[in-house]
Amino acid sequence: MMQFMLLFSRQGKLRLQKWYSAQPDKAKKKITRDLVATILTRKPKMCSFLEWRELKIVYKRYASLYFCCAIEQSDNELLTLEIIHRYVELLDKYFGSVCELDIIFNFEKAYFMLDELMLGGEVQETSKKNVLKAIAAQDLLQEDEAVEGALREIGLI
Amino acid sequence: MANAIKQVINEVAEKVKMPSTPTRLRDLIRQIRAARTAAEERAVVNKECAYIRASFREEDSQWRCRNVAKLLYIHMLGYPAHFGQLECLNLIASPRFTDKRIGYLGAMLLLDERQDIHVLITNSLKNDLNNPVQFIVGLALCTLGAIASPEMSRDLASEVERLLKSTNAYLRKKAALCAFRIIGKVPELMEMFLPATRSLISDKNHGVLITGVTLIIEMCERSPDTLIHFKKVVPSLVRILKNLIMAGYSPEHDVSGVSDPFLQVKILRLLRVLGHNDAEASEAMNDILAQVATNTETSKNVGNAILYETVLSIMHIKSESGLRVLAINILGRFLLNSDKNIRYVALNTLLRTVHADNSAVQRHRATILECLKDPDVSIKRRALELSFALINGSNIRAMMKELLAFLEKSDAEFKAQCSSGIVSATERFSPNRRWHIDTLLRVLIAAGNFLRDDVVSNTIQIISESTSLQGYAVGQLWRAVSCSSGSLQHDGQPGDLDLQGATLPISERQPLAQVASWCLGEYGDSLINGHTNANEQEEPVVAGEDEVVDFIQGILSSSQSTIITKQYALTALTKLSTRFSVTVGRIEDIVTRFGTHLNVELQQRGIEYAQLFTKHVALRPAIMERIPPMEHKSSQQGLTNGSSGGGGTLVSNGDDNMLMDDLSSFTTTSTSHSAPATKDSNSLLNLLGGLDNFDNGPSAPVFTNSKASTAPSTSNLDLLDLLGGLDLSGSTLSSAPISGPLMTTPTGSSTSSLVNNNLANLLSSPTTQMSAAVSNSSSFLIDGFLGTAPTPSPKLQNVTAYDKNGLKVDFSFDRPVDNPNLVIVTLTASSSYGSTLCDFLFQAAVPKTFQLQMMPASSTVINSGIPVTQVMRILNPTRAVLKMRIKLSFSRDGMTIQDQDEVKNLPSALWQ
Fold it and tell me: Which regions are flagged for Low complexity bias (chain B) (predicted)?
């Protein structure tokens, strides 16, 4: 089971954090700080895995963003790279060639996407199409509500 | 004027009446990003937080969603946002989907299972789980899956179970993972999900399939009964897997030519769980595993991910031997892959399987050694560990050549690990003594100061044991130090030792200087006489007395020598005064000068040794006699079956302090026993008494000496008894290092404590002697016990006391028949992920009615495959129920890990 996922920039700024196991806030901050520092100092020719406490850390850099996951000993680190890649593909499809700024300004959308791909630290959907369909349908629900709200405001409903 | 006041009042009134629309999320993010300094950013955030708080207080529901979203962004920057928790709950309770979406997101980020507001959220979740809109149910399930606490799990399990049977695949898959989380929190709830779970794996939808398999894995790992229950799904799993690899291209689930790798990996994992230790189930999956292993496309990472999982499954089940070879070969191919991640995974997996399938892994030895040259440190480290695991009697020469080459070139962080590994490997597999000594010396030369202390003591131990090679060793050492100190040119032909790279100054090679000093002190005369060749054909290394004294003086006067090295050197020099003839005056001069040294330890030695040149000059030859060969191996065998690490490790615990402690305890006891008639046995007794204290001191500081407190007799008396027992059993050989030099003391001399002191010093000054003595004495204690226990009581079940953080500690028990109150616990600590653990320290505590005595551990370094053992004696006079708390500390890959635990599974047979 994935324990947590962190997205951070090359400058070490946290862009997204998803914790699948309960941790006190202080511990979360410490873990984040430690891992960001460790990963940023690793050289590009090093492999994408590190052993850290009882967990295996799998990370990969896409442009200016690092995607970092902590998985358990029994999990498959090569497949975790695929999960990260799948997430990036989904974001890319959704935003249309995604960049760091998309994730900064639409961080909630990035969370929504992750929540359709994974649940409780496990993969819940292996079809890209299904994930994007679910997100699109939910976005539509929100839009309908916005339109309805606007109409109500000007007294049409 | 009045107008101006009016205007201000109007403005304020307007602000109070109609709060302006709050900053949009987008604008806030822009403002924060525009901040140039941290202080500026803080100011923006604080201002916005103040505004958000105020608006929360006013219970403004129109902008609540926007405010919470902004707060979540602020939270991600690391600012406190707990005041938004209740607002999230309000949003969740709102009927609007937009509100719920942000509300649940906030709940997942700001709350977790440890919060108390759960009663509130449970209610909202329950409502939303019954909502007709599937996406609202989906949000609720997602949140439940992320933050479910045990109470929430109990309250909402029935809702989840209902959704698990829903006709909507979108909800079924989410419900399955919720059930997965719930079982993790409250395993008893597993029963209720069982019927619905079975049907999940006949689903067509891949999302439902993968979540269903995940749920079954969790159930099987939690309950052996459920594991048996699910054995019958093996054929269905095999069928699904077969369809995945045989079916043609399906665009929906394709990942670079592989059909749904996520699902394939999950199924392989479940097969592994189901086939573990089950021949029948394993038989049913052999074929499909072989198919996956041969049919998977390996050009991309995704194919290798599947192969990797397949290899793990093949290794874990009772698979055919042909399949296992196939698996190892896949890993062998991984090692040649250009992708470093795949190489890393292969090394890691080989490391885990090397003990089971050593011969299969051996075939990839060359590739593994090649990985030692990898630029990636993680890969290097794994390759190094694996190389050590592969060493055996037949390949040690070839392997050691590579490892020594690696040691010479490697960074500091590897030098310690590599050299300790080489030492323990040579100890086990050396083809002969000479090769062993050569290898150890090369390690000393190549590793410089980055050596663990055990290497020094081990080397001295080996040299001391090999009586025929002592001269050879001293010659080689002399060659090494004289070459590296640069003060002397060595002539004659190059010996067996390759001294290339030996250009570092001696200050960078303290361990080498220590070993050289010790050996010069003991066997320096052979260097003068030229008895330094191992056989007739070789040309001996010869040096003059002055050269040797020059060298030692160089160490003693150098500010870069450590205190420990100087201690070795000073003792060596004093010893040489009885072996050399023309330089005695010089030596006396140097030794006397140390009487004013700033370091207390060295000063005391200086004064004491100076006495041996003046007042007690007659004693010097006897006291400075050669130490008899240390019987290291035989003394270890009783304790650890000859495992590595050995006596030297204690030294690394103690340093100067314990030497001093020992001395002081020695002095006090020796003055209390003043009867001259029993002097010999007394001093021996005292020495052991001192050692006994010392023995308990550094390695187990929390324990009282149980012997002293149980019986009215003192510990010394106890030891005397033990010694009596030893004499009877006739193991005089192993007591030699202690009794040897002492017995040679002229009994007629004074009873002043000075002599005793000197004796103690003599024994304790070269630290290895001390450690040898200690390990001897500790094994005496144990030998004594074992000897007095004729037949152990019925075999007691071994228990695993600790298995976390890569360390596994097992207890095995023994209860001597003649003392039913005594339990002897032998703990075996091994490294479970195959990495090397250092600085291992084990402590235990028992209730007050018990008495606990800890023996020193066989080593502080746990190499993969070489467990460390330690003996505890527990005396239980009241036959109470035994409870034990343990505290462990060790370091792995440079990280220190500390942990405490209670050992709960102690067998009741221990006290009944």
Answer: 664-681
